[in-house]
Amino acid sequence: MAGTKNYFDQIMENQNKLFSTFSNYANAFLEASAPNKQTAEKAGELLNEYVNRSYELVEKMATKEHLEAYQKDFWSTFTADYTRNVELSMELYKKTMDYFSNLWPTDVIEKQQGQMKKLTGLYQDTVKAFYDANKANAKVVEHYFE
Fold it and tell me: What sections of 34-107 are H helices per DSSP?
């Protein structure tokens, strides 16, 4: 029975090494593909501004006084609301385009090449770890049945 446990322990050790390699690869991949903190914060600020300013506009349009203005002069009120909505959309669109134009640094190609080289190496290490773990596990099973 102790021998069986030893074989099982060897297989578990091999699997733990494999899992650790896969985890390292997944973490490196996420790190390489995720935006940096500053970029993510700017995106969050832009999204918050979009949501907050749009909500403020809709909230103003839903007031009792504003709805009464629609009753008094529908077309003028509608035109003013439409104009404010278009102006807000244009302003936020411009901010979004500015964000995207600043998102890509001038050395993006060199950075991408370096990241792809790193990820390719990690992928090759992961495939090798998978092969090695299966080979080691097969030897353990082979010795178990001898």
Answer: 37-61, 64-72, 74-103
